[in-house]
Amino acid sequence: MVKLWSELIILFVALPIAVLYWINHVADWLMPILAIVCLFCLCVLLADKQFQRIRLWHWEDYGRHLKSTLKLFLPWASLLALCVYLIKPELFLHWPINEPWMWVVTLLVYPVVSVIPQEIIFRTFFFHRYKRILPSRNARWILSTFVFGLAHLIYGNWVAIIISWCGGAIFGYRYMQTNSTPIVVIEHAIWGSFLFTIGLGSYLVVAGP
Known about the structure:
The protein has about 210 residues and is mainly alpha-helical. It has 9 helices and no strands.
């Protein structure tokens, strides 16, 4: 119990705070750090005989879950886009209009280098690894949502935290429904790509020193 709580605090509280503290020195290393943490979590999962590896690739009832994803996404995404257009018109569609190649490259690379590692760490690993110390799935959902937002402190603005908490709640809930990493990766990629498209991606980059 103590070992697992210590691991959780080090990985999901101490590490993000340390990265935030030294952000000016490690800003260029955020993706490698994410990859290393993801690799660690994946190795721990694969070494655990109780972990059902099928969760890493199965697509059971994908069509039904995609419909559920879109039912949530379409109205709320429309409302969010309208808010950005009215409140921050200078950001709205800035990348697609002014930097189309950067926008396209981001949409292609982002799911692979960012979304997949995050979902392995904050959903697949977190929900399985800490079920002994957090037997309630709802407790794991709430705490995983909280630490997912905490990890986005590195961006230095409250918008990133709020967005991440909302996203973490959605993705955690979907994972509890599906026990499928790929399904949650797709939902995360849809929302993330949308945020970059409408201009909120500017809040999800590390500010210069």
